Prior knowledge:
This protein is α+β, with helices and mostly antiparallel strands. The protein is about 15% helix and about 35% strand. It has 15 helices and 67 strands. Mean pLDDT is about 90; it is low at about 1-20.
Amino acid sequence: MRKQLTLIAFLFSTFIFSQGLTTSGKIIVDENGNEVLLRGYTPGGWLVMEGYMMQAEGTAGAQHEFVERFTDLVGEDKTNQFFAKWRENHFMQEDVDSLAAWGFNSIRVPLHYNLFTLPIQQEPSADQNTWLETGFEIIDNVLAWAEPHKMYVILDMHAAPGGQGRNSEISDYDPDKPSLWESERNKTKLVELWKKIAERYKDNEWIGGYDLINETNWDLPGGVALKEIYERITTEIRGVGDNHILFIEGNDYGNNHAGLTPPWDDNMVYSFHKYWNSTNENDLDWILPLRDNYNVPLWMGESGENSNKWYTDAVHLFESNNVGWAWWAIKKLGDIDSAFSVVKNPGYQDIINYWKGEGDKPSEDDAFAAMMKLADNLLIKNCLYRKGIKDALLRQPHTNETIPYNKAQEIPGMIYLSDYDLGKSGYAYYDLDSADYNLSTGSFQAWNRGWKYRNDGVDIETNDDSKSNGYHVGYVGKGEWIKYTVNVKEAGLYRADFRHASAADGARFYLTNNDQNLTSVLTTNNTGGWFNFITTSMSGILLNEGIQEIKMHFDSNSEVNISSIDFVKVGEINQANFSSVSAKTASDEKSIELYLNQDLDESTLENVVGDFNVTIENSDLNIQSISFNSNKSRTIIINLEDNLLFNQKILITYSGDKIKSKTGKNLDTFSNMEVLNNLEPRYVLPAKIEAEDYVNMLGISVESTSDDGGGSNIGYTDKNDYAEYKIYNSLTRKFTIDFRVAANSDAGEISLDLVEESTGRYIEVMDNLTLPITNDWQSWTTVTKNTSNVIGKGVHILRLNIEKGGFNMNWINFREVDSDSDGVSDSNDNCPDTPQGTRVDVNGCPVFELPLNNFKVEVGSVTCIGNTDGVINLSVEDASYDYSVTITGQSDLSITGTSTTASFTGLAKGTYEVCFKVVGQDGYEQCFEVVVGEPKPLSAFINVDDVSGKMSVTMGGSNTYYVNINGVNTTVDGDSFETQLSTGLSIITISTDLECQGVVEQEVFISEKIHYYPNPTISNVKVHVGGEDASVKVSVFSEKGDLIYTRDQNIEQGSRKIHIDLTNQITGTYIVTLESKTAVSYTHLTLPTTPYV
């Protein structure tokens, strides 16, 4: 038994020595027990080609699709040649040497299973695994390259047999074939592959571990199937004596570890991935409990695809929590966010265009040459080196120091704006959009919108301007700036020549030197296009000799492209007057910095307050003092009594003669210099604060809202999250606060504090408020609470504390407290505690009132149109007051004593305002608008049906009308009248009882019915005449109007007929008229050439 124990101890000792990295509780250690924080890089796209990295999305996403398409172009042999060259050039000794020189200590190698074994569809038999040497040789090479640098190699199964995820690009999954999770043969092949790898590398100390399956994304309930295959792999690896670290990724792209706890092995690390979301200090709170609860290390196995700011912030987040990491990817095609950008050759683009249906098919030779050229472009010497990437990952997380991009640019000479310093956002540059957080915000944000040269928030494009380095800065916004370390070789007076282009007027920028304004603001004009560069100069710039920092600041949202600044020496410093350059609001929001062109003699600042004048909208501000900052030798500080706000236009004037430079020169006077106001916006209370407009936050996400007004709301709230807002309060006071909230199932809880910016101390504003459950994330309600303490006068940071999460918030509305609900805030209420419903004045005090029914106004209209005999009769109920009454255009009346009535007479038609005032009650007035009318003019519309003889009349202007027809009167009480008219002439007259309304008169003649036949005729025409007339007058005319004859003819009784004789007339058309007492007729008769039948 003793011998057996000794042997075990010996084997264990040897085993530890050969294994390299192991876990020790929550950390990873080397063979000597020293903690190792992994800092790694991944040659993504090397062994598993992903479509987006090849810029072939939509044509060849997964590697098998790329192989199939390229084989169609050049055949299988040339396709194999290309992939061999691709693997040879993509990652080699020189790449590992670079990573080591930069400071990385590990390499994560993404493996494709098909480099080690055949797909199950190609195996000779179902129970056989054919092993290929290609993949093992690749691992051997990487280990050989890494060992001299003592770098660890982590093997990552990026594409497992069949594919482990539905995202085919990542795992080369083919939906037409069974996935890893749908095939036991694929699972077995994966297990056997890891066993084979373990057998080969179990004793290699530079194997950092095995990342067993990359980014599973499949429906695996409870993680059961994932854990089962992990355990199978673990058993086989450990069974061959390999104790390297096992890195365990969760489902859902590595981050869902459900079902994968507790750990089943004592040398295990849980791995997660992080892309495109926030990098706040608590953004690992979701994964850290996995480490703490199970006493195992964490490893962030893959991240990238973002800006340098995001890289720096993410690495700082990981390392602050003692979590190692590996970045993606070292090389990418035509991109800026990898260390090396692979140049996309035109021939390759022709292939992509052909695959997209946007170009002709290239020949086999051309296609092969293009792909081999692309493979050749993978060599470091042929790539574009993005030096900012490694700086952002390895140096910037640990320092705020900035360094020159290449070397300090020299003055006199040309400064290229794209070569700003290397460093963090806020130290080397500031840009409004510096990273993409789309998984937190819901929308993609480009950081470098020009997508060229560098991977920071600064937007850079290419140009062909002769006075540039081929690049320019563009897409600028107000408040953005860029910093340059320069070496001024000669002190002196300089001119700066700015090379710029724009398609619009109004861009504004200026320079600072060591954070003191060096120039005034230059406003540019339209140059005729975004790439039509011109030179605009600024003179009078004084520079001292030596290494200095110059910043370019942008002061408007009007865009401009700027490629370079040429500093030309034009004189010596002693030739310049001592003058002011510009002025700017200071960060304390309560002072102004006045910048000078030369060093100031601070001893001359005594008793100069009265020499300065600061105004806002013609109002003078109280100046508290004038001071000097020894770190800014060219700056005068003007301290004010009150805060400044971001939206104010501030002017400053100097009219003294006391201030001098260190060389004894008097400061030139100036008048109404506009102060650059770069203060950040603040909500001026009372105000409605949009919840998503925070300046700082922890753990908060933003999403679109369906609440009234649209926009966004904050959500995904958890305990200890917070959001901070900048506010300004002009008076010390309390507020009533409305919160617009929604919650699906949990009652959230919040509180409010003020954060003192100088000390970080918290002051309670509102104690805890429990929020309601609304049963849906977008079902909104408003809850209200008063502040528990006053908010003091001045600027503040307001913190919304999440005491209990699970809710959304749209806005926070601050209203002044109105304790008695009289509509006047407590701060302006001179009469607090006014009874509910009492009408008050602007000071909150009750106003004198009388009921409306105290007043009676009766109106009498004028008697007829144009008369002036209208009347307004007035009366009051309460005779205890004396009244004065005014009316439009009339003299005032009084109602006093026991009298309760008065009248205005002799009024014309019109609208009048009658106002009652009570004597002795200033400010009281009760007004009424009344109308004195007049009769309307008479209107009558008469309509007669000629066939039936029926007449209808519609009338207006009166209530009673008199209708007279041929002397017979009818009184009509209403607006309409109907009657039957007799044949013949009717004289109709309509009137009212008011003569001034006028009379409507109309004559109507109704004729009897007359019928002619036959017509045409050959001789005679018979005529039937209706009515009772005994005779009728007949007149016959030729077509030209000549009278042929006229005669009276008797009408036959009974038949009512007469005859018209045309026997002796020639053929043609004749005109006949008939007239009697009750009939009038006019017609044409025709004698045709051909007899009428």
